[in-house]
């Protein structure tokens, strides 16, 4: 898949038991690699009811490379240093892609050790459609904002 002329790769990396996703780092200045547990992807693939989550991983890959915001510190136990990438990618399905659902934003959460643990569509905040609802209470601090964002 290509975004703005840049190829997105979901590959098996040298970290055993994980697939890798290329991303910009939490500062928005350089590239890094994050990891998705292969077992998680396998479980999603093998569960017909979770196909949408499997295809949403393509949207997650887009957001990791082209986020509009990156926050650090989820207000959840054990995720105080996790990163949350926020963006508005395309939606994907089997052999199709299309625009984001109206009024929705996509989040990808990554542990401080670089493991992607959650991704999906959420309702956008009414006062700032580039952020999820209640962003100010859900996250500790914004680490980066895309300069072309509003």
Highlighted features:
150 residues, alpha+beta, 5-stranded antiparallel β-sheet, 3-stranded antiparallel β-sheet, globular
Q: What's the arrangement of strands in the largest beta sheet? A: 11-10-7-6-12
Total beta strand runs: 12
| Total count of helical runs of at least 4 residues | 3
Task: Give the helices and strands as they follow along the chain.
Answer: EEEEEHHEEEEEEHE
Rg over CA atoms, rounded to whole Å, is: 15 Å
Mean pLDDT: 89
Number of domains: 1
Distance N to C terminus:
26 Å
Helix-strand makeup class? alpha+beta
Describe the biggest sheet? Answer: 5 strands, antiparallel
* C-alpha geometry: globular
> What are the low-pLDDT stretches, counting only 5+ consecutive residues below 50?
none
- The portion of residues assigned to helices is 10-25%
Beta-strand residue percentage: 35-45%
């Amino acid at each position: 898949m290509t975004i703005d002329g840049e190829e997105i790769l979901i590959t098996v990396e040298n970290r055993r038991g994980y697939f890798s996703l290329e991303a910009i780092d939490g500062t928005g200045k350089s590239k890094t690699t994050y990891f998705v547990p292969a077992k998680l992807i396998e479980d999603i693939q093998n569960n017909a009811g979770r196909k949408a989550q499997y295809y949403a991983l393509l949207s997650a890959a887009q957001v990791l490379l082209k986020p509009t915001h990156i926050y650090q510190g989820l207000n959840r136990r054990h995720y105080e240093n996790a990163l949350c990438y926020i963006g508005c990618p395309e939606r994907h399905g089997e052999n199709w892609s299309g625009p984001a659902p109206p009024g929705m934003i996509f989040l990808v959460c990554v542990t401080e050790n670089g493991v992607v643990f959650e991704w999906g569509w959420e309702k956008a905040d009414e006062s700032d459609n580039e952020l999820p609802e209640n962003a100010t209470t859900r996250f500790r601090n914004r680490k980066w904002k895309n300069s072309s964002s509003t």
